[in-house]
Design the sequence.
């Protein structure tokens, strides 16, 4: 397990990233980073002596789909179930190289326009 430094957003913030060790200071990301931009599932990264992420060595080509539901929205639970169903339909928690994200975009865009959520795809 390593950490990504997020102190540029708020002092002391870090995101814990589950990884697979490749060498003493090189790791493959084995999770879906939510707060750390530019790091995706299966990217290879290096760390310093404190296990803080220092740089990306190799991009995997995977992309991360982030969705934040608007808490006050009346249909929040129904929207959550709809989105969870879309993820289950394609059997993926992330977007591997070559994945067509149109299934997600078609579901997300009308909800975003209605003010129910915010979304983005990071690579």
Sequence:
């Amino acid at each position: 397990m390593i950490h990504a430094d997020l102190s540029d957003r708020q002092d002391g913030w870090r995101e814990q990233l589950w990884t697979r060790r490749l060498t003493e200071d090189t790791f493959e990301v084995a999770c879906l980073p939510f707060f750390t931009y530019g790091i995706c599932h299966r990217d290879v990264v290096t760390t310093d002596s404190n296990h803080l992420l220092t740089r990306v060595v190799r991009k995997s080509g995977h992309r991360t789909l982030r969705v934040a539901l608007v808490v006050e929205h009346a249909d929040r639970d129904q929207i959550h179930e709809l989105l969870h169903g879309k993820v289950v339909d394609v059997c993926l928690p992330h977007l591997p190289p070559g994945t067509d994200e149109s299934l997600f975009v078609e579901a997300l865009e009308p909800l975003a326009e209605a003010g129910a959520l915010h979304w983005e795809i990071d690579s």
